[in-house]
Design a protein that fits this description.
121 residues, alpha+beta, 5 helices, 3 strands, 12% strand, elongated
Length: 121
């Protein structure tokens, strides 16, 4: 007999997030900014992760259940591993609902990455 229970986690107030790093044309990145941004770009450098990120980002309604994006040519445990890496890099947020986990793209982080690469300054 299972004694599992569903625990509601608090929703963090994401509010408006200020980009972590100045545009690349503003000057050399600090060590801390370079490490933050490298972790995000490294997470996206894997083709499976990039496909998963794309599937979540383009899913109707802006969020996708892990069951909706797992058809990327690798096993389910590998999908979970890659989604975890994207979450740890701050690119995705997740919410457990019953037995499923739903993922959303973290728009402020993606905006920060985009702003850093903006050459129009």
């Amino acid at each position: 007999m299972s004694k599992s229970e569903v625990v509601e986690l608090p929703v963090l107030d994401t509010g408006v997030t200020v980009p972590c790093c100045p545009p690349i044309t503003a000057g050399a990145l600090s060590q801390a900014d370079a490490e933050k941004m490298a972790a995000m770009f490294k997470a996206l450098s894997d083709p499976v992760r990039l496909r998963l990120f794309s599937k979540v980002a383009s899913y109707p309604g802006g969020e996708a259940c892990v069951c909706d994006v797992s058809d990327v040519g690798v096993s389910q445990p590998t999908v979970s591993h890659h989604l975890k890496k994207l979450r740890e890099a701050g690119l995705l947020t997740s919410e457990r609902r019953g037995t499923w986990v739903y993922y959303q793209v973290e728009p402020a982080v993606v905006a920060a990455m985009s702003a850093m690469l903006d050459l129009r300054t």
